[in-house]
């Protein structure tokens, strides 16, 4: 008997007392399903094994009006035991029958002790209770053990048996028993034993706790739960705590109703109502849902609390065991459940209940057709969006579609499109197409929905489709004489998409001449999105044409300064402007804007915008020489961004190139090749990202010694860029990379021609980074007497641009050139500076090359920072600190938003670099502050706080 040691001890003691000729009585009390009847059966078996005579009776609610019902059950068994018949002429008055029963009991105990067991004393009729009172007063000196059970589901004051009072009531008789035991729920060990028997393996502690919480340890509920698990066919490994909480075996509700109907026919309606409005179910609300009077509902609720089925606190009524509530919910047909939720929502709204509570019922209710219902659902969606709860916002708006009219439906669908965009651009396109189709006429509402659709299409990588959408609507707006500002906004967006698609001889969009553009912003465009679109078109046109760097930066700052409502508002446009800043030389400013967008997207729960922000940060960080940041940002796009639907989307296609280059520069050549040299990659990425991917792949191939294939990739990159009209080398300096590849193949003349073209274009735009890159190639391919000066100029420009990795690379070239001209001392200084920069960037390949150069220059290389705390990268240091705090690999992965495999890789490198073998040694290293982080990275605020804490 699980968790029943004390009860079994009491039973054994009572049996021993009866054997000794001393009468004993024991009353077992408990709620429905606590195992009272099971203990009675166990007592009967034990008594028979010890030579007892046994008689038993069970009372039933429907037989409570039948006089002497329990008494006659006992009498008939005693007569059978003695082989006698009850005298036909025996008087039937109570006292005489009680005396006759006493004589039968005395006769039955002549040869052996006797066990009399009565189950469910609460349903016993009054004459039988009177006899029990008679018997309990005469047990002394008899070898009799009287065992009875008393449930909490007793008849109420208005039911049958209302006349039972004092000694003739179950409570009165209970007071006559020698001993009373109240049955509690099974403990955790017993629940675990039952679960292990069911699953065939050791039960998970979390699952044990969930089952005990759901059932209160009630044996009846536990057995019903296990049967439900068998019926659902759940394998042992699939049974989880979350799954248990959602199960609701209907048999539990049916069993309870069968036992309760005798005393409370309306109990089922009340329990159904409570299951819908719990845990804060008020009496009047339950009465309204159950269709009974307030007084009757109050009495029923009182009894259900007394019976242990419900509980009551200051907030109202609820179920004592969650599994019982789930059972009553599962028992109701969906239509009835929806009707009760709708009625609850109406009642709560009429009583000015909190909005959150009303909305909870509206989400499960049948349509009400009420304006206030739509208003509450939309308000709830707004609140959810403000808190980043996109899933709840989606549910609220989808439910709102059932309440809205034709005029509200397009607006709701557009907002749903924004939410879908947070999870991925593909579902957003489908949702927004439906939205546009529902909007009749050329309204501004339709125009904005089309802009949303165009942005979603562009995010999938289908820029031609995005451009087609905007071109068609722009033409319609012009023909219909739409407001001037709206037409200007569409022209600007069309210009941006034309830039991406490479349409027209001139990349500059047709929104306005550069000189008059600021005036247009202040005098014509009053709407923030129009001002942003016009400024963005001007900024990107100025940059991609490669002629007006100052204007590009100015307009990008103007556009980024415009207010937005949510992070999804023109997110793609704003992230493009961040790249304008980075490619124009304002890398630090770009990193700040990118980090702010990532933080906002993370807080609002927009995976899509967060992934795009990481892709942008990957490029910005790489340009600044922050390889670890670039690597982590690019990995974040592929690991935590939307899943590609058959092919890469804009974010993953962009991030892949920067990830491959960061992996190579960091020394992970195998992984870099897997990322960039995957078969069929050209056809899998969006066309707009293909030039960048070819640029990264070409550089990798050349670095690995595959100069011919690498040059082919670089030249194809250039062909695609020129086809689109993207001439500015600040975007992709393919000419300088191709020039160096031509030189390695012996064609220096072609290389010099490409370098001169790139240098002229870079100087025209004026971005220091682009000019410095071109000068490096010019220095390497120029006349011997000019190389050192040209390379020195390149290094100076790259230093001004904050491009640490490219500066380190050109300083290495300068050091080698000085070695060639036998200026050894100066060469060593440049090589040392280059090595320090490369180590700071985490460029392990370049570091190894520089160490060899320094040895050849006669310099002593710095100590090997591949060993010791100084060798840890920021990512390795953060991982090590969290591991030292005791977090598991799974917890670290969740905290840092990386995979468990990445955590394992970081920890293995940490152990190697610190010459330790386990986490205990890692904790000691953390205690002596050897793992203190060197600097905070450009991360969202909550991540930066953790990494710098």
Structure commentary:
With 949 residues, the protein is mostly helical. It has 48 helices and seven strands. 52% of the residues are buried. The model is unreliable at 157-163, 504-523 and 933-949 (pLDDT under 50).
Key words describing this protein structure:
about 950 residues; mainly alpha; five-stranded parallel β-sheet; disordered C terminus
Span from first to last CA? 54 Å
Shape descriptor reads elongated
Oligomer state of the chains in this structure: single chain
Strand order of the largest sheet: 2-3-4-1-5
The residue ranges in which pLDDT falls below 50 over 5 or more consecutive positions are 157-163, 504-523, 933-949
- The chain-level mean pLDDT equals 85
Radius of gyration: 41 Å
Strand content: under 5%
What composes the largest sheet? 5 strands, parallel
Helix fraction by DSSP (H/I, runs of at least 4): 55-70%
Supply the number of helical segments: 48
What is the count of β-strands?
Answer: 7
Secondary structure class reads mainly alpha
Brief summary:
The protein contains 48 helices and 7 strands. The strands form 2 sheets. Strands 2-3-4-1-5 form a 5-stranded parallel sheet, sandwiched between helices. The chain has a two-stranded antiparallel sheet with strand order 6-7.
Write the layout of secondary structure elements.
Layout: H1 5-19, E1 24-30, H2 36-49, E2 53-58, H3 69-82, H4 94-108, E3 114-119, H5 126-136, E4 144-151, H6 170-174, E5 179-182, H7 188-199, H8 205-215, H9 219-232, H10 241-246, H11 250-260, H12 267-277, H13 283-290, H14 294-306, E6 310-313, E7 316-319, H15 322-331, H16 334-350, H17 355-362, H18 371-386, H19 390-401, H20 409-423, H21 425-438, H22 444-460, H23 463-480, H24 484-501, H25 517-523, H26 528-545, H27 549-560, H28 571-583, H29 587-604, H30 607-623, H31 627-640, H32 650-666, H33 669-676, H34 681-684, H35 690-703, H36 707-724, H37 734-744, H38 748-765, H39 768-781, H40 784-801, H41 804-820, H42 824-841, H43 844-856, H44 874-884, H45 889-896, H46 900-914, H47 919-927, H48 941-948
Parallel strand pairs: 1-4, 1-5, 2-3, 3-4
Antiparallel strand pairs: 6-7
Helix pairs in contact: 3-4, 3-5, 4-5, 7-8, 11-15, 12-13, 12-15, 13-14, 16-17, 17-18, 18-19, 19-20, 20-21, 20-22, 21-22, 22-23, 23-24, 24-26, 25-26, 26-27, 26-28, 27-28, 28-29, 28-30, 29-30, 30-31, 30-32, 31-32, 32-33, 32-35, 35-36, 36-37, 37-38, 37-39, 38-39, 39-40, 40-41, 41-42, 42-43, 44-46, ...
